[in-house]
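Response to reviewer comment R2.3. The reviewers asked that we include at least one raw input/output pair. We reproduce the pair for Cyclin N-terminal domain-containing protein here without editing.
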Amino acid sequence: MAYYKQPCDSYFVESHDDHGLRFREEIREREAHIKRQTQLAIAEDLSQLAIYEYGDCIQQHMEDMEGKTLPDVAAIDIQTEIQWFMRPYLLDFLIEAHSAFALLPETLFLTINLLDRYCSRRVVYKKHYQLVGCCALLVAAKYGDRKDRVPTIKELKAMCCALYDDDMFTQMEWHVLQTVDWLVGHPTVDNFLQLALDHLPYDPEVEHMACFISEIAMFHKEFVSIRPSDMARSSLALARFILGRSQASENEWAAKYEHKTLYSLSQQLHRPSSILSRKYSTAHLSRVSITLEDFLTRQASIIRCYAPPTPPAETCTESRKEPNSNNMPVTPTKPYFMTHLNNGCLTPPITPTNQEYTAGSANGMGMGGFSRPLTPTSMTSEPSNHQYSASCSLPPIGQIAPMF
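Raw output as returned:
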């Protein structure tokens, strides 16, 4: 049996039904929101002022740093245990971890850069490949993300199913920093995208589509050694084309993209990772993976419409037509000397043999040297004594030319 709670009228007890308390909380939240918006506006003004005064120097420094922090694909190729087919599995794991900790977009790009640079300089065993990726994520989060978002070693250990000890994370983190010479400030693709879109009206769909295309490129070997600035320009141009936006003018920095890189990116759009597609199918990322899938479907239908028709296959029917005797091939034969007889049958040609020539004088066959073939007669049931009457007669045997 439930007990009824007696209301207390004491002055020192707060009630959830106190309208004055709820009103004061709403006022505090509104004031805090106004202060945050004011801080963001001041920061935006300072950023615009810094870009106006130091934009060229910042861009030049970023382009210099990207050349110093590029990984070497040829060095990764000589790894003995890790292979390129293992890369998508590790990247799927890092993308899920990055989304779980709600880290900044540039943190993911910096993580992949640290991973590739470490694999370019150190021999990595297959059993330590995931450990290197986790420590690269830890270093990247400490470098550029908020302190409250940085994952702890305990959380990373739990994500790896306790496969590694705590000391192994600490040692590998130090080893990664030593390998890259403590040079962590790599300008990522996201940094160059912000540089290209900063002076334009904010279009989140274009930005998210460009980031989606850039993250698709991380899975493929051919884009590992491409500069982030080239990748940012190419992905931005491709994103604008997919979304039907106008391209950058010729004098802008974003218009100086490489056509080869742009074409290579367009060839890899049809097979994104399932983890990556699910990540960019959410509303806060403008559902650009669904938009890209619809675009590729429309392109495929257009290609099918303009493709030449395929000739129909011949179907086999049960009723077969009789072959025409006029169109059938005929075996050539030697012409007969006699083409017509009034009575009897045609005399078939006989090829003479050597015995017929040698036995000609003994058998009294004359000078021809071979026996004369018998002329077949008509088949009659009763003997007849009347003579045949023919319009033509056989030539003498001596006039028949040898048939060889």
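The two ends are 130 Å apart (CA to CA). Confidence is low (pLDDT under 50) at residues 364-371, 380-395, 397-404. Further pairs are available on request from the corresponding author.
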